[in-house]
Specification:
The protein is mainly β. Helix content is 2%, strand content 34%.
Length: 203
């Protein structure tokens, strides 16, 4: 079992950026609400993450924990989530020096709707032109209708997380029936995702 080298972020630990609405209500805040219907049924399949938008660097070295002050700041990044009139809220953030030696931040974010708990997306941030935080890879999109409760960076360079979701629109929003342990592994300049089913209710 590999050791987590980044600060393991768990939903609820970051109060300034944490969720502020009750988890038993989930109201989609924008036009993507319709696109979410039926997505829960396909989250059990292993998917490849979106390729990195930056220039890939060969993986070498060992990831290590990194102070948030020297890692890309999620608040200064343009996260690709279409929230319409609502702002984007960062709910989890894990700074770490990646296997290629560069500083990075793994971020879970969602649309800050007026009520409910919108689905999360997960991104890997690095430094782009002008040393501004930029999205290097999209690891999970909000269209999968998952709520991410934990993120970490392992010593082997993989990113891990835990998420919960719904198998259909008929499942009560206060009782998710899908629970997944997620792993993103560096491969070919991008990230390959694998997942296993976890006990429902696991944080």
């Amino acid at each position: 079992m590999e050791t987590a080298v980044g600060t393991t972020a768990t939903a609820g630990q970051q109060k300034p950026q944490g969720r502020t609405r009750p988890g038993h209500v989930r109201t989609a805040p924008w036009h993507w609400a319709l696109a979410l219907a039926g997505c829960g049924a396909v989250v059990g399949a292993a998917l490849a993450a979106s390729p990195a938008t930056g220039t890939p660097v060969p993986v070498h070295g060992t990831p290590e924990a990194l102070a948030a002050s020297v890692a890309p700041d999620p608040a200064k990044a343009q996260l690709p989530i279409d929230c319409g009139p609502f702002p984007v809220a960062t709910v989890l953030s894990v700074p770490a020096r990646l296997a290629d030696g560069r500083p990075g931040t793994v971020v879970a974010a969602h649309c800050a709707a007026e009520n409910g708990t919108p689905p999360d997306a997960v991104f890997l941030l690095g430094y782009g032109p002008g040393d501004r935080p930029a999205v290097l890879a999209t690891l999970l999109t909000e269209r999968e209708n998952l709520t991410v409760s934990r993120l970490a960076v392992r010593s082997d360079g993989a990113i891990t997380g835990h998420a919960q979701g719904y198998s259909s629109e008929d499942v009560p929003r206060f009782r998710p029936d899908i629970s997944l342990d997620l792993t993103w592994t560096p491969k070919g300049g991008g990230w390959e995702r694998s997942q296993t089913t976890a006990p429902v209710g696991q944080a």
